[in-house]
Amino acid sequence: MNTFRARLLVxxxxxxxxxxxxxxxxxxxxxxxxxxxxxxxxxxxxxNFDDGLEPAFSxxxxxxxxxxSVTKSKAxxxxxxxxxxxxxxNAPAPGVYTVxxxxxxxDGHRTQGHYTFSVK
Length: 120
Prior knowledge:
By secondary structure, this protein is an alpha+beta fold. It has one domain (24-119): Immunoglobulin-like (Sandwich), CATH 2.60.40.1220. 17% of the residues lie in helices and 38% in strands. The protein contains one helix and eight strands. The protein has one helix at 2-21, and strands at 27-31, 37-38, 44-49, 59-63, 76-77, 84-88, 95-104, 110-119. The strands form two sheets. It has a four-stranded antiparallel sheet with strand order 1-3-6-5, with no helix packed on it. Strands 2-8-7-4 form a four-stranded mixed sheet, with no helix packed on it. It is elongated. It starts with a helix and ends with a strand. Residues 13-21 have low confidence and may be disordered.
């Protein structure tokens, strides 16, 4: 019996750890995508995540090569799809831009990252 209980405990701990590992929100699709080249008419940066986001704490910021913000307003999480966050852009001039994102999943776990795209 003791061996069975020990195995059950180890199995339960492994399952709990696996669930925690998947409790973070990670990007699954970005517009514009990492490394993409877009036209100056690009008006939005958007990211789809694999988990729902807490709107009050999640963000996307887009900056030019000098670190100046090119966003019109604060990023928003779609009210009908909590896995989609976007931000409106001022018309970007040709150059390289950095998208920095912070995602707070509905369970409170935080992920963050960044990538670049170019405007030609």
